[in-house]
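Table S2 (continued). Query chain:
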Amino acid sequence: MSRQPQPPLRPQPQPPLRLRKGIAVTTTEYGGVLLDEKDGTYWQLNECGTLVVTAISEGRSPSDAVEQLLAEYDVERAEAEADVAELTARLLKAKIVTRGGAR
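Corresponding output:
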């Protein structure tokens, strides 16, 4: 009896990222600032970080942000992907962004 090969497992799609309610985004000449209106804490972002947060606030994915970084900056794909992943992980940990419909 021969066993049929199994198709490779595909990763499950992640729910979209969203800015948490009460987070304000402001652009500056040097990048941007995120302000938690609830407790007054803020994050200062460079231009690339602002691009990523803007993409998330517009409902676009981190992958979309990577593609935009590649189109606008002289950066290698691996570096852009790593930077976007690191920033989104930090924003999730800080509860600045959430996954799915929760705001």
